[in-house]
Structure formats: structure tokens, C-alpha cells
Write a structure and sequence with these properties.
By secondary structure, this protein is an alpha/beta fold. Helices cover 37% and strands 15% of the residues. The two termini are 21 Å apart. The protein binds pyridoxal-5'-phosphate (PLP).
Length: 367
């Protein structure tokens, strides 16, 4: 069986270096807010090109903390509206509602699966304070039009960069395009830890300071609390692993691009709609390779029977979840179509050429 994602193989590719760093961390006797986190934050900031990187406990917290910090800074207040794509992973939306802010859902573009920027302006009201863009499946969503909408209405652009580390728009990395960005290092992400981990990047010094305090009980100085904060810190042990793996992210993303290129040119089946390859290849890091088909269940079963594991990202749109009952009667036809038809093929830096060939062969033999 070709696994959807072979995490063991992904991490064993760096076994010696990771084991050395883990052993050092273990023996150091220092497990929180120490040198490993400091070093990883510096290297992440440098990689992204941002002035500040703050390690936090996970990707959801990264986004929650950005919005919470804007509330503490008086930039936003409870009840304000944040624009967000209707087809995102639910965490983007949870980060908004958890802060007492109101998520305003906008339909995606069927070709890119990213928020349809031309549909943002019609949703802006006097309460709108930000746009949470999501580089879904690893593909950049950004444009001059987006920047001018944000400037005109004085909106913060917050990036959910959980799926797109390493992607670039006009030579700038995602995580450095908007005002602040949340990263997830969940094990299955392109840069994955050995458990939960996340980070925020920003060029806004006050925001960085506020987030750093909020994530540490609201304290910048031990036992002095300026906010009613939370505990959301990046562990030393995860930072050590991430700092090793960060060195290889470009090479690993390049391998993902090679696989995507083969899928795009060699999968030829009228029943399968392939994702669009952006004209500028730097704009995609292929966290997921998502196809569409009107016969999803049948195709998925066929792939499974022939030894290819697939997953669905995601089966139920946020507005149809029980968690957001008030939205259950709303209609987002493009979002609903995407959730009904998408299927993710295996893609990862450790897939062999033979495995890629097999996935292509099985997709092409489906009738
Ligand atoms: C993974 C993910 C998150 C949440 O990250 P966690 O580290 O799992 O909390 C948020 N947004 C998107 C788009 C994600 O894919």
C-alpha cells in the first residue's frame, strides 16, 4: 500500500541529526523557552524574511494569539468581523470565533481552491477589521487587488500559513506578505514537529511583544502579568527538531513540486479534474495534491483496492458543521461542490519515482 503520508520515513530521512539534537536537549536539563526555541525562532524569521518569529504550542493558537493580540492592542474588539474563506480547515474559523470576533465566510475560486478575492469587497461592513487569508493546500493567495482592498478599508491581512511554508509571491515568502502570519508544525505539515507546534511571524514589533506575553500567561517578566494570558509555548524538544528540518524544507518542497509536475502531466483521465499549476511555480508547495471527481467514493475505493491510500480535505464544510449551527442554512455552492468532490493523492518528499508512477497508472486505469 502506498501510504498517503509516511511520517516515519519523512523523519528518518534526518535521523542522525534529529537524534543528536534531541539527545542534547534531553541532557541539557532546560525544556522551555531556552536556546533551542531562540535559535529556531531566529532561523525561521530569517527564512521567512520577517523581523519576528514567536514559537507557540500549535497552529490554532498561532492564529488565536494574533487576533487576541489585536484585541489587546485596541486594533479590534469583540463583535468585529473577519473575512475568511468558506472552504478553509475549521481551525482558521475557530481562531476567529474563539476571540468573540465574527467570521464572515467568502466563497473560494474553484480553480485555485483559495478565497475569491473579487468577492471580498461585497462582504465588507463598518465592523470588518481583517482578512484571514489561507494558502490552502500549499498554494499562495495574494494580489495587489487584495492589498488595495485592505488599505482602502484599513483591514489587517492575517495569513494562515499552516499549509504553505516556503511558498513565494513576487519573491516574498508566505508568512511575510500580510501583517501577521500563523504557522502550524503539526507532524503532517510540510515542516512537521514530533507533536503539536506552531509559530507566528510578523514585522510589527508591538504585536510580536504582545503575542509573546499572551502566550506566556500574559507576562513579559516573571510573575508580572500585564494580560490575562494563556500558556501556549513551543517546547524546546520540538524547536530542536524543527530547527534541523527547516534546513531541508526547500529541497523537500522541490521534491513535492517534481511529483506534482508528474501528476499534472501524466494523469490523463476524463473523470479526474487536476489542480491548476500556478504560472509561477514558486507559488505552490503542494502540501496536498487535490483532485476533483464527481465519483469520489468509487474512485477512492478503486485506489484503495489497488494499493493507493487517499484522504479527503475536507469532507464537511465549516458552515455545515454542528459546531456552527447558526450557519447550517446558509448556502455556499462552490464550497459545497469542493467538499463533495475533492480527493487528495499521496504526495511527500519521500515518495519514490516508482510509487509516483504507480499512483499515475492506477488513476489512469480507473474507468
Ligand atoms: C493544520 C492547520 C491549522 C491548525 O494547526 P494545528 O497546529 O493543527 O493547530 C490551521 N489552519 C490550517 C489551514 C491548517 O491546515
Amino acid at each position: 500500500m502506498i501510504k498517503f503520508l509516511d511520517l516515519q520515513k519523512i523523519n528518518l530521512a534526518h535521523q542522525q541529526e534529529i537524534e543528536e539534537r534531541l539527545l542534547n536537549t534531553f541532557r541539557s536539563g532546560w525544556y522551555l523557552l531556552g536556546n533551542e526555541v531562540k535559535q529556531f525562532e531566529e532561523n525561521l524569521a530569517k527564512y521567512i524574511g520577517a523581523q519576528h518569529a514567536i514559537g507557540v504550542a500549535n497552529g490554532l493558537d498561532a492564529l488565536r494569539l494574533i487576533l487576541r493580540a489585536y484585541i489587546e492592542m485596541g486594533v479590534m474588539q469583540k463583535g468585529d468581523e473577519i473575512i475568511v474563506p468558506a472552504n478553509t480547515y475549521i481551525a482558521s474559523i475557530l481562531a476567529i470565533s474563539d476571540n468573540g470576533l465574527v467570521p464572515v465566510l467568502v466563497e473560494p475560486d474553484l480553480e485555485t481552491y483559495n478565497i475569491d478575492i473579487s468577492k471580498i469587497e461585497e462582504k465588507i461592513t463598518s465592523k470588518t477589521k481583517g482578512i484571514l487569508i489561507v494558502h490552502l493546500y500549499g498554494r499562495v493567495v495574494f494580489s495587489d487587488e487584495l492589498v488595495s482592498i485592505a488599505e482602502q478599508h484599513q483591514l489587517k491581512i492575517i495569513e494562515d500559513n499552516a499549509q504553505a511554508i516556503g511558498a513565494e509571491w513576487n519573491g516574498n515568502k508566505t508568512g511575510n506578505l500580510g501583517d501577521a502570519s500563523g504557522f502550524s508544525f503539526y507532524p503532517g505539515k510540510n515542516l512537521g514537529a514530533l507533536g503539536d507546534a506552531g509559530a507566528v511571524t510578523t514585522n510589527d514589533e508591538e504585536l510580536a511583544k504582545t503575542i509573546r506575553a499572551l502566550a506566556n500567561y500574559g507576562s513579559n517578566q516573571k510573575y508580572v502579568n500585564i494580560f490575562q494570558g494563556l500558556n501556549s509555548r513551543l517546547d524546546e524538544i520540538h524547536a530542536a527538531v524543527l530547527d534541523v528540518k527547516l534546513k531541508y524544507i526547500d529541497a523537500e518542497n522541490e521534491r513535492r513540486r517534481d511529483i506534482a509536475k508528474r501528476y499534472l502531466s501524466e494523469i490523463k483521465n476524463p473523470k479526474i479534474v487536476l489542480p491548476e499549476n500556478p504560472a509561477n511555480e514558486a507559488e505552490h508547495v503542494w502540501h496536498l495534491f487535490v483532485i476533483r471527481t464527481s465519483e469520489r467514493e468509487k474512485l477512492q475505493n478503486y485506489l484503495t483496492e489497488n494499493g493507493v491510500q487517499t484522504l479527503i480535505h475536507y469532507p464537511i464544510p465549516p458552515h455545515q458543521q454542528e459546531a456552527y449551527k447558526d450557519w447550517n442554512d446558509l448556502s455556499f455552492p462552490i464550497t459545497e461542490k469542493i467538499h463533495a468532490e475533492v480527493l487528495s493523492l499521496p504526495i511527500s518528499p519521500v515518495m519514490t519515482d516508482e510509487e509516483v508512477s504507480k499512483v499515475i497508472r492506477i488513476c489512469n486505469s480507473y474507468a
